Amino acid sequence: MKYRPRKYVAPPEGSLWSAEAARYIGVALTTLYKWRQNGYGPEPHTVGRKLAYELIVLDAWLHGQGRTDRKSLASAA
Hints:
Layout: E1 15-17, H1 18-25, H2 29-37, E2 45-47, E3 50-54, H3 55-64, H4 70-76
Antiparallel strand pairs: 1-3, 2-3
Helix pairs in contact: 1-2
């Protein structure tokens, strides 16, 4: 069987995959995963089997340093 590298699939518009999100907020990917398990950090959403983080949620989390998701952002507006 011939090895074929996987194609890069872009995240939804305005979002980053987990590794990109970790770099964006300045933490290790494993830290982001641990935070998710413990209910801390920005709230991801699933796209198929992958996790994506919306930029607006990441920015809100960076400024507020608490659990942030789309629903709480919408209710605050």
